[in-house]
Amino acid sequence: MNTEKDLRRKYSELLFAKQNEQRYPEQKSYVKKREKIERHEEVQ
């Protein structure tokens, strides 16, 4: 079960990944990271 703290952390990771994806569109690693977060997988 996700705690509020876990959900907050995941949401901030998602926002950070989206921000980097928009800031550096040529870097495909940010797209992959965001997609992983959206699929609820662990990101390293």
From TrEMBL:
Where in this protein does the record put region Disordered?
A: 22-44
* Composition skew (Basic and acidic residues), residue ranges: 35-44
Q: Which domain of life is it from?
A: Bacteria
What is this protein's record name?
Uncharacterized protein
Q: What is the species listed in this Swiss-Prot or TrEMBL entry? A: Virgibacillus dokdonensis
